[in-house]
Amino acid sequence: MSRVGKLPIEIPKGVKVNLNNSVVEVEGPKGKLTQEIKGDISLNIEDSQVVVECNSQTKQNRSYHGLYRKLLQNMVTGVSNGFSKTLLINGVGYRAELKGKVLALNLGYSNMIEFMINDDVSVNLEGNNKVIISGIDKQKVGQAAAEIRSLRPPEPYKGKGIVYENENLRRKIGKSGVK
Could you tell me which residues come within 8 angstroms of residue 29 by beta carbon, excluding any fewer than 6 positions away? Predict the structure, then answer.
């Protein structure tokens, strides 16, 4: 039995969880998310809790047990609070600019990079070097942040590039001028 899967999910006020056949819908103040459930997994919706149960003990269904419990927890958190990731742009002359649904990035290349922002996430800028990505779907927020970071990953010597706010970079020592 999955340790993650057996924990109940608390449903905050203002959030509704509906089960139609094998599709779960979670609706809250920030929006609505849906997820299809595969395998022999059942949901019991009681008062202000959802319990995910595994009906057969095959390896596939046991792995689905913890997966769907965590996905449902992320959906409830997303529609009630939302998710956000913060990226920092480090480097001389590196900056970001928001033009409607396009994030224009100057990252030391000869041309500016234009990153199209998906409708499911929103991007805000603080200054020229702090990009905040937020939305209700944890996977889409993380994917957008990872795609932006991949445009100029941090280099280990000076730390130039795009990093997550709480990311620890392992810095290397440059050449030593031994004579």
Answer: 14, 15, 79, 80
- The reply to whether 103 and 73 lie within a common domain is no
Residue type, 102: V
Residue 96 sits in the same domain as residue 142: yes
Q: In this structure, is residue 152 part of a structural domain?
A: yes
Q: Which residues contact 99 (CB under 8 A, 6 or more apart)?
A: none
Classify 21 in phi/psi space as left (phi over 0), alpha (psi -120 to 50) or beta.
Answer: left
> Which residues lie closer than 8 Å to 88 by C-beta, 6 or more apart?
129, 130, 131, 162, 163, 164, 165
Expressed as residue numbers, the domain containing 145 is: 83-164
CATH number of the domain bearing residue 63: 3.90.930.12
Helices 59-80, 138-149: crossing angle, 10 deg rounding: 90
Q: What is the pTM of this model?
A: 0.88
pLDDT per residue as tens digits for the range 102-153: 999 999 999 999 999 999 999 999 988 999 999 999 999 999 999 999 999 9
